[in-house]
Amino acid sequence: MQSARRPDPTAIIIFGGSGDLAWRKLIPALFDLYLDAWLPEQFAIIGVDIKDLSRTKYHEHLHDGVKKFGRHRKVTAKAWKEFAGHVSYRKMDFTEGGGYKDLTGQLTKFGEEWKTDVCGVFYMAVPPRFIEPIARQLKAHKLATPEKHARIIIEKPFGHDFASACKLNNLLSDCFDERSIFRIDHYLGKETVQNIMAFRFANALFEPIWNRRYIDHVQITVSEEVGVEHRGGYYEGAGALRDMVQNHLLQLLCLVAMEPPVRFTADEVRNRKVDVLHAIRHYRRDQVHEYAVRGQYGPGWIEGKKVKGYREESEVARDSGTETFAALKLFVDNWRWQDVPFYLRTGKRLQEKLSVIAIQFRPVPHQAFPVEAVEDWQPNKLIIAVQPQKGIRLQFQVKRPGLKMILNTADMLFSYTDAYEHEPPESYETLLLDVMLGDATLFMRRDQIEAAWKVVDPVLRVWDNTTPPDFPDYVAGRWGPEEAEALIARDGHSWVSMAMRESKVANDGKDD
Ligand code: BG6
User: Fold this and answer.
1) How far is the CA of 185 from the centre of ligand 1 (A)?
2) Residue 160 annotated in active site
3) How far is the CA of 356 from the centre of ligand 1 (A)?
4) What is the block-wise mean pLDDT of the chain (512 residues), using blocks of 10 residues?
5) Domain residues of the chain, as ranges?
6) Angstrom distance (rounded) from CA 359 to CA 507
7) Residue minimizing CA distance to atom 5 of ligand 1
8) CATH topology match: 10-155 vs 188-360+445-489
9) Are 494 and 303 in contact (CB under 8 A)?
10) Which residue CA neighbors atom 4 of ligand 1 most closely?
11) Is ligand 1 within 6 A of the CB of residue 155?
């Protein structure tokens, strides 16, 4: 989000440095930033973890990740060698003071070598149980004080429910200044997600009609083809609502529904987003079944390959009641959105990977055309394709060429791939750079996290206490349980299952 400037000299300490996140996301992102000359000239990356690894072995492991997941496909040996020269590894027990003392010494050494203050970025890429000991040790060793320009990055899951999130926030407030805490939601770093704000607030065209008077409803779909992969252990305790809705989907909703900020500063933007979260109607226990649907995938077929059901995945209970699909109908109770439904759905092992926001406009107030002209007529729809296709599509009506007046739906398309030559940066590149620059606009503030948990808490309480008798209730490779279709069909709509092109199957939805 920041203007073009390189960060000050920085040392990035990755707790969980030998883990999956560092391998797949963090180091590839840092290397890509390095190749594009976004890292400061003086920087160091220290991976710390419990494993015993030599520096050479660590470099080999990271190099492999960079080749697989980096944005710059061709990595020259020279560039990697130069970058790796800044990367070291330390075996460390996160709970013991000794390692932190060494880290303090190391940071002081950097300061002396670089002849300047060093900004310390502490990335907690660790399971939740390690957050408290690390935070306490960082505090005890005065490693992360604002005077030291320290930044602490916390990954999700950020708590398990409202109460645990508050507890975690209290712990962090006790150890660090709120301005130093960067709670990551990687969706906020996605190029297309950032573009929602540009699209809404840098164009005069849409904002005047962006409200209940012109918009009938909003749909947010984040579907995945993949199953739980190797994360069964984590997912069993999470489920789709905690894993995706509480964070990513609610953040997308905030971007669609927020008021224009006065300025693009971290607090102004986050104030407007938290207003949305506060305005979302909370359900009572007895309303949950009416507004929320859960599902779990059984065995099925994806791209011609047979895939397991959720209950057969490793580290998953054979009678698991964890949902791998969630759909919600929400209302934002304020002047702009009163009575406009926001339908959210997300799930694993669905028909295709698709993140899409559909804004369905209301029909014209008066239809003057003859009946035969409007057989195919549809109200306007705006589709924001977040991934894998990236772009914006506006559907509107045109006259079909010919002697008769017949209306047809046509598209106006903006596609990132057609418009821009280069791949946009990965979200972790954007977010890591923002942390180094101290810009928290795209990060979650304490009140946002807590307000988001408050929205899903009533649903969690009902779902956690009852195992649905019909699980698994959707076949892998389809669009989720039938109940999710019914949730939206009751209001006369159907889910939008395509972005910039036709869906893989003929879309039988009325709205499409
Ligand atoms: C993560 C979830 O936050 O987001 C995963 O924990 C999910 O379960 C992932 O697969 C999806 O991210 P993306 O960027 O691939 O849409």
Assistant:
1) 10
2) no
3) 14
4) 78 96 97 96 96 96 95 88 97 94 94 92 95 95 82 94 97 94 96 96 96 98 95 94 97 98 94 98 95 98 93 96 98 98 98 96 92 89 95 94 92 93 92 96 96 97 92 96 97 89 41 36
5) 10-155, 188-360+445-489
6) 18
7) 243
8) no
9) no
10) 244
11) no
- Read off the amino acid at residue 115: K
| Domain 10-155: CATH superfamily, name plus number | NAD(P)-binding Rossmann-like Domain (3.40.50.720)
Omega prior to 157 cis, within 30 of 0: yes
- Assigned token pair, 87: 């990367």
Pocket flag, ligand 1, residue 185 (CB < 6 Å): no
Instruction: Establish whether residue 473 lines the binding site of ligand 1, counting it when its CB lies within 6 angstroms of any ligand atom.
Output: no
CA atoms of 178 and 168, how far apart (whole Å): 13
| Global pTM value | 0.94
Q: Which residues contact 345 (CB under 8 A, 6 or more apart)?
A: 219, 220, 221, 222, 223, 325, 326, 327, 328, 480, 484, 495
Determine the atom of ligand 1 nearest the C-alpha atom of 387: 16
pLDDT at residue 82 in the model: 97
133 C-alpha vs ligand 1 centroid, how far in Å? 26
pLDDT at 54: 96
CA of 196 to the centre of ligand 1 (A): 19
Q: Tell me: domain 188-360+445-489, CATH 3.40.30.10, correct?
A: no
Catalytic choice (149, 186, 248, 493): 248
